[in-house]
Write a structure and sequence with these properties.
Elements: H1 4-12, H2 14-24, H3 36-57, E1 64-66, H4 73-86, E2 90-92, E3 95-98, E4 101-104, E5 107-111, E6 121-127, H5 135-152, E7 160-162, E8 168-169, H6 177-199
Parallel strand pairs: 1-2, 6-7
Antiparallel strand pairs: 2-5, 3-4, 5-6, 7-8
Helix pairs in contact: 1-2, 1-5, 2-6
Length: 200
C-alpha cells in the first residue's frame, strides 16, 4: 500500500521510498528512535485537529462521523465509504483506498457539488502546525484528493490546509492533480522495478 508519507519520502529521496516499502512488506526492519520533540509535535498536532473539529461543528449541529482508529484497514475503508454515501457533513479520519494507493485523511468535508454520491461531494482538509502551506502538505492534499476523486466519482474543486495560526489556505485541486498522477506513476514504476530485481 502506497500512502501519502511514502510519496513524500519518495520525492525527498527515492532510496528512502524503497526502504519504506521494504519495511511495509516485512523485508526490512524499520529503525526506531525515541524523539521527545516528535512526540510533543504529535500531541500538538492532535490538539490542533480537535480544535478544528470543534470549530467546524460550533453552533451548526453537523453530522460528524469519526472513523475509529481501532478498526481494521478494510473496515475503516468500508465505514468511510458508507459515511460518504450517507451524506455526512464531516468525516473525521476518513480512510481512503484506490488499488495500491490509500491513506487516512484528517477531514473530508461535504460541499454542494453533485457527484455519483448524490447532490453533494467532498473535499479534503488537513491540519498542519506550520504557518504557511509547505510543499509536502500540498502534496499530501493532492494525494488524498486523487484517491477521493476515485472514491466519489468526481474531482474535488479545492483542497484545504488548516495552518497553525488557524488560517485556511485552499488551493485548487484540478491544477495540481496531473502532476501528482505523474509522481504516483513514477513511484509505482520504481516499486515494480525493485520487486522484479528482488526476485532475480
Amino acid at each position: 500500500m502506497f500512502s501519502a508519507t511514502v510519496i513524500v519520502n519518495f520525492l525527498a529521496c527515492r532510496h528512502l521510498g524503497v526502504l519504506e516499502q521494504d519495511a511495509a512488506a516485512g523485508r526490512r526492519e524499520k529503525p526506531f528512535f525515541r524523539d521527545p520533540s516528535q512526540e510533543l509535535l504529535r500531541e500538538l498536532g492532535i490538539r490542533h485537529e480537535q480544535n478544528y473539529l470543534h470549530k467546524l461543528d460550533a453552533g451548526k449541529s453537523l453530522n460528524v462521523v469519526q472513523i475509529p482508529a481501532a478498526l481494521s484497514w478494510q473496515d475503516a475503508v468500508a465505514e468511510t465509504t458508507k459515511a460518504l454515501r450517507s451524506g455526512a457533513d464531516v468525516v473525521y479520519q476518513g480512510t481512503l483506498e484506490d488499488g495500491t494507493w490509500g491513506g487516512r485523511s484528517d477531514f473530508l468535508v461535504k460541499v454542494e457539488k453533485p457527484s455519483p454520491l448524490g447532490s453533494w461531494s467532498y473535499e479534503v482538509a488537513e491540519t498542519k502546525l506550520a504557518r504557511s502551506a509547505r510543499a509536502n502538505a500540498v502534496l499530501q492534499l493532492c494525494f488524498y484528493s486523487e484517491v477521493l476523486a476515485k472514491t466519489q466519482g468526481v474531482v474535488p474543486e479545492r483542497m484545504h490546509v488548516v495552518l497553525g495560526n488557524s488560517k485556511v489556505e485552499s488551493p485548487g485541486a484540478p491544477g495540481y492533480l496531473p502532476r501528482t498522477s505523474r509522481t504516483l506513476w513514477g513511484l509505482h514504476m520504481v516499486s515494480r522495478l525493485r520487486q522484479t530485481t528482488a526476485r532475480r
